[in-house]
Task: structure prediction
Amino acid sequence: MNILINGKSQQLTSAQNLTDIVNSFCKQPKHVITELNGNIVPADRWAQTSLKDGDALELVTFVGGG
Amino acid sequence: MTDTPLVIAGKSFTSRFLLGTGKFKNKQDLADSIAASESEIVTVALRRIDLERHEENILEYVPAHVTLLTNTSGARNAQEAVRIARLAKASGCGNWVKIEVINDSKYLLPDNHETIKATEILAAEGFVVLPYISPDLYAARALVKAGAATVMPLGSFIGSNQGLKTKEFIQVLINEIDLPIVVDAGIGAPSQAAEAMEMGAAAVLANTAIATAQDPAVLAHAFALAVKAGRMAYLSGLPLQHPVAKASSPLTGFLYNDVPAN
Result:
């Protein structure tokens, strides 16, 4: 299935939950915040949140800023 | 001389200098600068993760006692600022947010109107809101009403190092607004930070000047000292300026009978 991660199309070969996605796509999974189809998903709900075809996921984190 | 702490939303701070974490050449410079600045509040931004390359987690370089203030940079209107603030809160790293709404890429001036709207929404949701604005009395009053924790007027354009170009307007806010006034943006040298504190600003935020200095930690320390010096001068009851000279030495008991001309 295809999902959109940070605006880019990504092919997933198997059904995955959000924990799997964060761990496989984020090289630094600490302090990652997720927004699925416009809704924030808290880290404690990642494991029970499975992705489906066409989902749009945002993976964001903190960077330097003034 | 003893000073009262800086209090923002009920939380007390000894330091009156806030440090931004953008543009540092490396994370070690950032860590050293945070330590040297003695800052107890640092700003960070929120961005999409780069899925292609490994980036260090900036929060690893921010000591635990330091309050994290996430800015909403990238937001072009109130709704986008609210979205960023909510995402930041979901990280579990606190609910302090610096509202920054900008939709002009040349001058990077904040949109006061959208900033007020975002402040209303986020303050009602329990965020501690520090809005960044162009210094304007009516905007500042609206922010007080909206539940802002401070008002952060810009000294000059972001990253310009031009200092207090808006000095008179910031002074109006200091005089009239019953919230801590934190001077933000354009502060390019310790002397400018001291000047803001002498005027009675509650605190100063700097980023670019320090991050782009040859030795950031040394400049961070210089800023910390300047903010303290400026604050001390303000508390001393700094005398007024005069248009003409006023002698420092007595004008009596001269060695000559004829008094100096004039």
User: Anything to note?
Assistant: Chain A has one domain: 2-60. The first helix of chain A runs from residue 18 to 25.
